[in-house]
Structure formats: C-alpha cells, structure tokens
Amino acid sequence: MFKNYIVVIVFLCICSCTTDDTIQEPVANIFDGDVELFTQQEVDDFGAMLYTEITGNLILSAQFENPDPISNLSNLSTIEVVGGDLRLTNLFDVPNLDGLQNLTSVSGEVSLYGNSMISSLDTFSNINSTIQSLEIINFREIQSLQGLENISIASGGNLIIEGNDKLASLDAIQDGMPSVMETIRFKEFILDCGPFVDCLPIIPEPQPFTSLAFLSNVNEVDWLRLKGFQGTDLTGLENITSINRLSVWLAPNITNLQELSNVTNDILFLFVSQNDQLETLGGLENIPLVTGGFQAVANPVLTDFCAVQNSVTTLLEEDVEILLNAFNPTQQDIIDGNCSE
C-alpha cells in the first residue's frame, strides 16, 4: 500500500511539472520610453539589463570627442522589438551590426547614417514589420540592401538613399514599397563637413545603382528627387501617375523622360539640371500645368522643350529659368511652339 502511495505521488508531481512547463510563457522584459546611447559603456550597461522590447525609439549615436565611442553592439542581442524609430548615427567605430540580429519588429523609421566599415545589412533579415520610412545615408561599404527583404514601408512614407557610393542594387526592397509615398530621394556622396571630419575639396561620388525597377509598385509620390542616378533610363517609374515635385539632376546617362509619360497631374515644381545626355523633355507631355516653377539649367545637349509647351503657360516669368542648355528658348517661345532646335 505504501508503495502505491509513492507511485501516485510521483505521478502527480510529474503531471504537475509537465503542465506547468507547457503553459509557462517567457516574460518579456520591456523598457518603457526612448533609449539613447552614446558610449560603449552605455551600450554594455543597457545590454546587461536584457530588455527584449523598447516601446519608444532606440538611438545609437556618436558624440564629438567621445573618449568611449560605440564600437560593438553585441550586448544588445536580447532586443526583439522597437516600438519607435531605430536610428544609428555616425557610428564610425562599429564594424558590423552584430547584436541587432534578433530584432523582429520596428514600428517607426529605420535611419542609418554615417559608417565606412559596415558592408552588410543581413543582420536585419529577421525584421518583418511595416516601418514609416527608410533612410540610408553615407553607409559607404554596403553594396546592396540584402537583409531588408521583409521590411515594408508604410503608405505615405519616405525612402531616402544618399551617399552610399558602393550601393549597386536596391532590388531587395521592391516588394516592400507602397503605392503612395511622400518622398523618394537619391543623392551622391559628398563629404560631410561637420565636427567629425575636416572639410577638404572632394569630387562627389555617385551611387552606382543603375536600375529603378524596385520602384515599380509606386503610383504616387509627393517629391521625386533623382540626383546622381547612373542608369540609362527611368524604367521602374512607368506606374507613377502623380508627382508634386520632380527633380532630375546630375543623371549623366538618360536621354529622355519617357518613363514619366503616365504622370497626369499638375506639378508644383519641375527641375532639370546638369544631365549630360538629356536631349528632350519627352515624357512630360501629359502634365497639365507646372504651377510653382520650372528650371532647366546646364543640360549641355538639351534642345527639345516641346513636352512642356502646354504646362508652362500660367507660370510667371520670374518662375521660369532656362539657361546654359544647348538650346535656351524663352517661356513665350515654348508657348508659341518655338520649343525645339
């Protein structure tokens, strides 16, 4: 009888333990608010608290003349969720993003600014969430956006890609692009003359990507700024039907703007400058009006303005600037049909 009692007690204990193990959930360790870390010691101290979620922003940034700059993110490896922005700013001593590999969700913007050692964004491959904006500026060693495939940009968000002078492809983010965007902005690398670097004369380094196919999901954008684009055409922009501000600047290989022929709304501002091979504004014929300003400056082979003959009719004379092109008609010349040479 005593042995039977022992068997029953052991059985109940085993069942109780098994049940507890089954229903027990890991407890999230949540930091409520924003986190701003400026030194390696601050990173290590915060990492030691083993937080899994930050409800606000996570900001990692360099400070001028900092004796303890951030150089290693590995102690942040428990963080899985950032409820606000993820901002990495001027982390010049950080060689890789190891430590952020367990991030699965960012709800605000992802902003990466200033680094000459990080060559891969693969660390972010577990992030599967919708962010508000994506900004990658002066990350000088990355060659692609591989690692961001599972990120989506929210409707009305921003894409800002500037100064990444080895970036050859943005195709990884194509599936995450929304149909409506606030800003799409590209710009070449120019040395940032700030407190961290001496300002020396430097020739701008273009971003080497040559395809805009990753923008094929976009239908509307408030400001499209293509500066330093190296492709031979604008394939990828054919589905855009609405633009408010358009800048095509220092795009040395395009000859026309045909891929913008589906844009059919009034445009506030149109700026075309320093495009070495641009011969014609063909592609802009379906824009009803340019309402705020039109500038065509220093396009050395541009001779055909007929695509904007109808759209510049209501502009004030002081809002039109046409000079240093191969052909420089006046606003009235264009309206009268004397728009090409």
TL;DR of this structure?
It comes from Dokdonia pacifica. By secondary structure, this protein is of the alpha/beta class.
Describe this structure in words.
- With 341 residues, the protein is an alpha/beta fold.
- The protein folds into two domains: 27-171, 24 nucleotide stem-loop, u2 snrnp hairpin iv. U2 a', Chain A (Alpha-Beta Horseshoe); 219-340.
- It contains three helices and 16 strands.
- It has helices spanning 2-23, 40-47, 331-336; strands spanning 30-31, 35-37, 53-54, 58-61, 81-82, 86-89, 105-106, 110-115, 130-139, 152-162, 180-187, 220-227, 242-249, 267-273, 290-297, 320-323.
- It has a twelve-stranded parallel beta sheet with strand order 2-4-6-8-9-10-11-12-13-14-15-16, with helices on one face. Strands 1-3-5-7 form a four-stranded parallel beta sheet, with no helix packed on it.
- The chain starts with a helix and ends in a 5-residue tail after the last helix.
- The model is unreliable at 1-24 (pLDDT under 50).
Give the low-pLDDT segments. 1-24
Main sheet attributes: strand count, strand direction, barrel closure: 12 strands, parallel
The residue-averaged pLDDT reads 90
> What fraction of residues sit in β-strands?
25-35%
H/E topology pattern: HEEHEEEEEEEEEEEEEEH
The CATH topology of the largest domain comes to 24 nucleotide stem-loop, u2 snrnp hairpin iv. U2 a', Chain A
Number of domains: 2
Query: Helix/strand/pairing class, anyone?
Result: alpha/beta
| Rg calc | 27 Å
CATH class of the largest domain: Alpha Beta
Distance between the termini: 111 Å
